[in-house]
Specification:
Belongs to the EPSP synthase family. Helix content is 29%, strand content 21%. The protein is an alpha/beta fold. It folds into two domains: 7-29 and 250-440, UDP-n-acetylglucosamine1-carboxyvinyl-transferase, Chain (Alpha-beta prism), CATH 3.65.10.10; 32-238, Enolpyruvate transferase domain (UDP-n-acetylglucosamine1-carboxyvinyl-transferase, Chain). The strands form six sheets. Strands 2-15-17-16 form a four-stranded mixed β-sheet. It binds shikimate-3-phosphate and phosphoenolpyruvate.
């Protein structure tokens, strides 16, 4: 079972070259990470909830589809970005399509454990290599049965969670060094377990701490008691999940390539709706862009980034915001000095092995980009046009567009893969440049 788009027939997209400084305001849709957490919590809540400004994209729609299969009623309000969620008993004997969405394949097995029957999980071919064991083994140690296609305990998709209508809860050790989503997944459903969940991270490193903070904050917002006072340990107390009417922040990680464009092309890009306080790792973007030569200011809720076209190399640890790395890797390839991106070994388990993909594609354009144990070293060199492969990875495609602002003849494979989190990216990108798809021919 898979709904993976057919990539063999997708035409190449000619990335537009910037012909002058930018002066653009870009409205970015809702955060994927917030939308999919809020949907899960709304589906487990005590009454009808509403999400406003929710993301509608492949990942969000896969989450909506899966939660409907599991018994929730989710309807659109006046506009598609308003969603009304009515929880129902969690139902089993269903098949769930996770696509390539980490938030669906990791967040839903603990929800499925609450179902009254088997819940079968599968996804895109590329999803079948993404790490799953820590969350499945965590469920097993909480007494939940999980089976794979063969006799062995499953380590990847596809697998089946044998829901029994209840999860006991208790203490569980999880190695989340490959993905913070293993922690978030178990915490999100834990208010519905019978006893407190005490989750201890046992790995050497823990990426994406802001995303775990986001999970804790969204749980507290719906009245769930979470104790995160000890490093690497989280305790969730069982209790009711309140139904809420919430507004979703714009996706700050999806804003990153647009804001970075001001640095590459020169000029100014503004993003309205920039939150004063947020748990999104995209909060790091203004500071990172400043380190690379931009100026960034927030007035009211508008973030304004201005650049001269000159990009400075950096040495940065992106452990907390790995999903930003593709944007900053290609910025580094356009800089006037070498860069090092550290703390991102876990990107090897993202939509694709992003370290290998970035090194291969930047090298294909004539650049120099080498993998290290936990990141990339990028030495700028003159770049030339070529087909930039995207490996079903939305952030490879948006990063290719960023490079294309300065590299004539760059063609992006499967720009439609951006629909994972940002449908219509190509049109938004052209609009930022003051162009339309018709201008592109
Ligand atoms: O919980 C989330 O919403 C996410 C957590 C992060 O995953 P990793 O910790 O696997 O990097 C991030 O990269 C991903 O895009 C979204
Ligand atoms: C890693 C990402 O996605 P996912 O939620 O599928 O893990 C990402 O969006 O960069």
């Amino acid at each position: 079972m898979t709904t993976a788009p057919d990539r063999t027939t997708t035409p190449l997209w000619d990335a537009p070259v910037a012909d002058g400084p930018l002066d653009a305001t870009v409205e970015v849709p809702g955060s994927k990470s917030l939308t999919n957490r809020l949907l899960v919590l709304a589906a487990l809540a005590e009454g009808e909830g509403t999400l406003r400004g929710a993301l509608r994209s492949r990942d969000a729609d896969l989450m909506i589809g899966a939660l409907r299969s599991l018994g929730a009623t989710i309807t659109e309000g006046g506009e598609p970005s308003t969603l009304h969620v009515t929880p129902g008993p969690v139902t089993g004997d269903v098949d769930l399509d996770c696509g390539l969405a980490g938030t669906v394949m990791r967040f839903l097995p603990p929800v499925a454990a609450l179902a009254d029957g088997d819940v079968r999980f599968d996804g895109d071919p590329a999803a079948r290599v993404r790490p799953m064991l820590p969350v499945l083994a965590g469920l097993r140690s909480l007494g939940v049965r999980v089976v794979g296609d063969g006799p062995d305990f499953p380590t990847h998709l596809p697998f089946t969670v044998r829901g029994r209508g209840r999860v006991a809860g208790g203490a569980v050790d999880v190695d989340a060094s490959e993905s913070s989503q293993f922690v978030s997944a178990l915490l999100l459903a834990a208010a519905r377990f019978e006893r407190p969940l005490v989750l201890r991270h046992i790995g050497a490193t823990l990426p994406s701490l802001p995303h775990i903070a986001m999970t804790v904050a969204t749980l507290r917002d719906v009245g769930v008691e979470v104790d995160d006072s000890r490093d690497g340990i989280w305790q969730v107390t069982p209790g009711p999940i309140a139904a809420r009417d919430v507004r979703v922040e714009p996706d700050l990680s999806n804003a990153a390539p647009f804001l970075a464009a001001a640095l590459v092309a020169g000029g100014t890009v503004r993003v309205p709706g920039w939150p004063a306080q947020t748990t999104q790792p995209g909060a790091m973007v203004p500071d990172l862009l400043e380190q690379m030569g931009a100026t960034a200011t927030v007035e009211g809720d508008v973030l304004t980034v201005t650049g001269t076209g000159q990009v400075r190399g950096v040495d940065v640890d992106l452990h907390a915001g790995g999903e930003l790395a593709p944007t900053f890797a290609v910025l580094a390839a356009l800089a006037d000095s070498p860069s090092r991106l550290r703390g991102i070994a876990h990107l090897r388990g993202h939509e694709t092995d992003r370290l290998a993909a970035l090194a291969t594609e930047i090298t294909r354009l004539g650049g120099r980009c080498e993998e290290t144990r936990d990141g990339l070293v990028i030495t700028p060199r003159p770049l030339h046009g070529a087909v930039f492969r995207t490996y079903a990875d939305h952030r490879m495609a948006t990063s290719a567009a960023l490079l294309g602002l300065r590299v004539p003849g760059l063609q992006v494979e499967d720009v439609a893969t951006t629909a994972k989190t940002l449908p219509g990216f190509d049109t938004m990108w052209l609009r930022m440049l003051g162009r339309t798809p018709e201008d592109q021919g």
